[in-house]
Amino acid sequence: MLLNIQTKQKRQVIDITEELKAAITGSGLVNLFIRHTTAAITTADLDPGTDQDYLKAIEQMTASGPWGHPHNPSHFPDHFWSTLIGANLTVPFEDGKMLLGQWQRVVLIELDGPRNRQVEITVIKN
User: Total domain count for the chain?
Assistant: First the structure.
C-alpha cells in the first residue's frame, strides 16, 4: 500500500498515525519506508510545540559546513537529517491496534518541502 502525503512547508512534522490505521487489521507488524532522501519516518511525542522543538534541535545539531553536495551544498543538511532520523519504521499491532506507547505518534518529518511524499506500507500478519 502506498500512502501519499502532500507537505506544505520547508520543514514540518506530520502525524500520520490515523492514516496507518486503515492499513492494519488483525495482528502482526507494519513497516513504513519513505521513498525520499530529504524526509524521514519516526515516532514522536506531539505535545503542543514539540514538533517545532524537533525541527529546531536538528538544525542546531548541524554545523554550517562547507559541504560538498554537488547541486546545492546548503541542501546537504536535509539529506543528513533524513539519514540520522531514518527512512523506515516497524510497529507491532494487535487486534488492529498499533502497540504504541501512551504518547507515541507515527510521524513523517519533512526536511525539504513542500513536496508530495510517498510512504510504502508493508503489513506482515501473524
Answer: 1
